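Need tokens for this chain, all 165 residues.
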Amino acid sequence: MNERIRAPMVRVVDDEGNQVGILPISDALRLAREKELDLVEVAPMARPPVCRIMNFGRYKYEYSKRQRKAKQRTHQTHLKEVKMGVKIGDHDFDTKVRHAQEFLGKRDKVKFSVRFRGREIQHRDLGEELLRRAAAALEEFGVIEVPIRQEGRIMTMVLSPKSSS
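Here are the structure tokens for all 165 residues:
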């Protein structure tokens, strides 16, 4: 930028995008100062290097604005957990499934957990049936990413959102 440019001759593009031509660096700097703008090297590997007359502060501001806007459009996937007990009621189950549906709609993964308390651990089939029921209720919104597995007294399953293609 400005006096830091080391090339003796540069191809100059003015602030409207028109080619001025190949000029000595001193003439290019004088042209930029007359317009009260900066001379910025945009293609240093070209022969001769290409420099543009622009307001560098404004360029940096607009560039950071574009970067922020692009970052807003990306979605970071989170893992949401839905916990249930083996003896969960039908209405409670429907509510949990509805929450999971919302999470999947927002492109988040959902981990279903069934906790076995006391002697309930002897009835693993009830936990598996509960998780299968949840997967069946959500099959149009998500797919099973991690199948049903037992981790101590907790049985888990992970659903991820269906691809939008």
